[in-house]
Design a protein that fits this description.
By secondary structure, the chain is α+β, with helices and mostly antiparallel strands. The protein has helices at residues 5-18, 79-82, 144-147, 171-185, 194-207; strands spanning 33-37, 42-52, 55-63, 88-100, 103-115, 125-134. Helix 4 runs antiparallel to helix 5 (194-207). It is globular, with a radius of gyration of 21 Å. The two termini are 31 Å apart. InterPro entries: Lipid_transp_b-sht_shell, Lipovitellin_superhlx_dom, Vitellinogen_b-sht_N, Vitellogenin/Apolipophorin, Vitellogenin_N.
């Protein structure tokens, strides 16, 4: 219950990777579509199942553009920003779960996002992310970190926990300066550091009072 928001979201991301809604890992269930609630939101999820000897490979496909209750909602950005949202060209994830004898031996998730800075623009920002969870070992001993957990727990959804940033008027000047730097870098072409500076500008924007 006393976990920081970032820590809770990290654990939710791990739990989301393990999520498997199939009634069984039989190939007969390949192609089934479920609406799942995970760290991204409520998303339509297509399952594919393959058997490779004793190993079962379950692949989950999500198109984030069609997710509901996505964490990037109006509560995170000022109203003025929502009048001109960033055009999302592509946003999807593919998670591959490898299961042997009922044990998840590895989970690999790949995400791709393509965003255009403006409607009709031929320039775009493309981001790829890959995360891997691997089984290391098993033990029947309870780790100290688990044995010291409090007896009282709070049940939470797997959806991303919003963290409301404190508003600060001084952020307006920082936002203005950062946007000038971004505009200067992309004036004649896409610059490798423009994406990180744009992300920083969004951070400042969320802290600017309305």
């Amino acid at each position: 219950p006393d976990d920081d928001t970032w820590s809770i979201n990290l654990k939710k991301g791990i739990a989301s990777a393990f999520q498997n809604t199939l009634p069984s890992n039989s190939t007969i269930n390949s192609g089934l579509n479920f609406t799942e609630t995970d760290i991204i939101g409520n998303c339509s999820t297509v399952y594919e199942v393959q058997h490779e000897g004793e190993k079962v490979v379950v692949t989950k496909l999500k198109n984030h553009r069609f997710c509901q209750d996505h964490y990037a909602n109006r509560a995170e950005t000022p109203k003025a920003w929502m009048k001109a949202p960033l055009p999302m060209e592509e946003s999807y994830s593919e998670c591959k779960q490898e299961i042997t004898n009922g044990i998840y031996t590895s989970i690999t998730c790949k995400d791709k996002n393509v965003i255009k800075p403006a409607y009709g623009s031929y320039k775009y920002v493309e981001a790829h992310q890959e995360s891997v969870l691997r089984f290391q070992s098993e033990t029947d001993q309870i780790p100290p970190s688990v044995s010291q957990l409090p007896s009282r727990f709070i049940r939470k959804t797997l959806r991303y926990d919003q963290h409301t940033l404190k508003k600060d008027p001084s952020m307006a000047a920082k936002l203005d300066e950062m946007l000038k730097q971004v505009c200067e870098k992309v004036k004649h072409g896409v610059h490798e550091h423009a994406a990180s500076q744009f992300a920083q500008a969004l951070h400042f924007l969320r802290r600017v009072p309305e």
